[in-house]
Amino acid sequence: MRNWFPFTDYDFYAYLTSGILTLAVVDEAVFGGAWIGQEKWSLAEGVLLIASSYVCGHVVASLSSLTLEHWVARSILHPPASLILGVEAKRKRERIVSFLVGRRGYSKISDSLLANTFSRVKKSTGEDVQETSDFESAFQVGYSLTRADEDARKRVDDFRNQYGFCRNVAFVSWFAAAIFFGAYLVDQNSPHLAFAAIAVFFGFMLTVRFLKFYGAFALEVLRPTWGAPKP
């Protein structure tokens, strides 16, 4: 972000956008858009909106991390890093995800690259990933290496921003679908059923995008471990 913008890139991607969307959804479903849709805003109201969006975005980030990341991407599905390192084998559900997002981040790397990764991890931590199946140790070694390389750090940060944005806005979309459907049940003459259908579409598409960038993030973190370790 530019120097005059008072938030970091991650604040904007992960918090502000999802926060203001959540407030807009609640305002539309409960109050008919009376607040967000007002024509004139005072400076105080604008500051209040930004502050409220930022706080709300943190709540959304916590809930989306718990549900979409830790439950869906790491419990229902095998974590991307475990698939990349061959610690876990693809099941039908991972094959479906791989079909939707592409092989990047959801396929095992070559045996030669795996050998280099395992050697690097063993040299750094003394742990044999092939024996322990602890892919997290390889992930931590790779993450440390990315911090030492400016180009690698930028790529990893970019994918983190992208998956954080998609994860949070996907959660807001599913939330919007639920609250709009509830508003439709209260007033079946309202357009909220159509809004709910649109929210479901965006929820699905952004969940797929989240999984895509989440896998790409894991791949970029592990990439520095592919080189043969120095003797």
Distance between the termini: 41 Å
Proportion of beta-strand residues: under 5%
Structural shape: elongated
Helix and strand element order: HHHHHHHHH
| Most strands sheet | none
What's the overall average pLDDT, rounded?
Answer: 86
Rounded to the nearest angstrom, the radius of gyration is: 21 Å
| Low-confidence parts | none
Compute the number of helices. 9
Structural class: mainly alpha
User: Could you estimate the helical fraction of the residues in percent?
Assistant: over 70%
The counted number of beta strands is 0
Short description:
This protein has helices at 9-31, 43-76, 80-84, 92-101, 111-125, 129-132, 135-147, 150-186, 192-222. By secondary structure, the chain is mainly α.
List the helices and strands and how they pair.
Blueprint: H1 9-31, H2 43-76, H3 80-84, H4 92-101, H5 111-125, H6 129-132, H7 135-147, H8 150-186, H9 192-222
Helix pairs in contact: 1-2, 1-8, 2-8, 7-9, 8-9
Structure description:
The chain has 231 residues and is mainly α. It contains 9 helices and no strands. The chain has helices at residues 9-31, 43-76, 80-84, 92-101, 111-125, 129-132, 135-147, 150-186, 192-222. The longest helix is centred in the last third of the chain and has 37 residues, at 150-186. The two termini are 41 Å apart. The model has no long low-confidence stretch (mean pLDDT 86).
